Amino acid sequence: MSTWVLLRGLMRESRHWGEFPRQLHSAMGMQAVVTLDFPGNGSLHMQTSARSVAGMAEHCRTQLRQLGYHPPYRVLALSLGAMAAVEWSRCHPAEIDRLVLINTSLAPYSPFYHRLRPANYPALLHFLIHGSPVWRERLILQLTSRLERSAHQQDELLRQWVSYAQEFPVSRGNVLRQLRAAISYQASLTPPQVPLLLLASQRDRLVDVRCSSALAQHWGCPLRLHTEAGHDLPLDDGTWVVRQITEWIARDAGDANEGKSLGDASAPR
């Protein structure tokens, strides 16, 4: 039985998934759902972040072995986490059963000004140089979510995120290492050799949706677009994400059964 592995992006940790892991587990039945932190983030905030996306992927493999989870894995990954998932599937394709990549961007498929919208450069520069945890988390929420919340809901979510940042602070050095890894990563021109689903948000403030469209075109894989959500699609509409995954898996199973039936029908009697 496959294990679902969830990977997040820059500076984010397992707790930022919120209710989504439970939603996915409920839809997948008996399949395990595991959330991992990259070194430098969350429970691993005291560790030095990997200087490469390949290093992040290798650390995921090591964590899973230590936790007692064995391949094949079904990997759902967001943003920087999706880069690590792509590299993982390139180096160890036999370990990956399926990939679901959310709002990611990859060189050389997209230009830098699509991979990170230029309008965000000044705020992110200020974010790196200055910024209290409250200011940083407010900016991250503004850039990554488009969901309309009440003032109380907004304040409660920010309170949670600030408490995470204060309990497990991400050092400026680790932020820079993660950024450098993301900027320098060059994906292979060969598509991942595993079943792959792309999910993207048309109102993503951080990454241009054309990055996902470019990947779908080059890789020949399905792309599902959300018309209202922001960059953190599982946060804004986890129910939609789970529905796209279950329908994709069911469609693949149906195609496989149809192919088997056709094969049986053409077999000699």
What report would you give on this structure?
With 269 residues, this protein is of the alpha/beta class. The protein has a single domain, classed as 3-Layer(aba) Sandwich (Rossmann fold). The protein is built from ten helices and six strands, in the order βαβαβαβαααααβαβα. The protein has helices at residues 20-28, 53-67, 80-91, 112-115, 121-129, 133-144, 151-167, 172-184, 210-219, 233-266, and strands at residues 3-7, 33-35, 73-78, 96-102, 196-201, 223-226. Strands 2-1-3-4-5-6 form a six-stranded parallel beta sheet, sandwiched between helices. β5, α9 (210-219) and β6 form a beta-alpha-beta unit. The two termini are 34 Å apart.
Give me a quick take on this structure.
Pfam families: Hydrolase_4. The chain is α/β, with parallel strands linked by helices and 269 residues long.
Derived structural class: alpha/beta
Low-confidence stretches: none
Mean pLDDT: 91
Q: Alpha-carbon distance between the termini?
A: 34 Å
- SSE succession: EHEHEHEHHHHHEHEH
Number of strands: 6
What does the largest sheet look like? 6 strands, parallel
Q: Please indicate the percent range of residues in DSSP E strands (runs of 2 or more).
A: 5-15%
Number of helices: 10
- The CATH superfamily appears as Alpha/Beta hydrolase fold, catalytic domain
